[in-house]
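Example record for the data management plan.
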Amino acid sequence: MIRVQFNGSHSMKQADFRMIDSNTVELTGEKIKPETTGFKAYRLNGEFLGDYSDYTEIKAEVKNGYHFSKP
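Corresponding structural encoding:
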């Protein structure tokens, strides 16, 4: 479980994160919406994990989430 902050948003959402391949990640969780702004990822303790601002396309919809990919 991590926290994500979509670009342009002030709030953070908890999500499960999984790398699908070098250009696609999966975010799942109750509050994950099909945002196309990219996001930043953080550990639950606030430690920065990575900038995924380039992941602005929805590649697939999965149960409770989406596959986000680079264009």
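Summary line stored alongside the record: Strands lie at 2-6, 13-21, 24-28, 39-42, 48-52, 57-62, 65-69.
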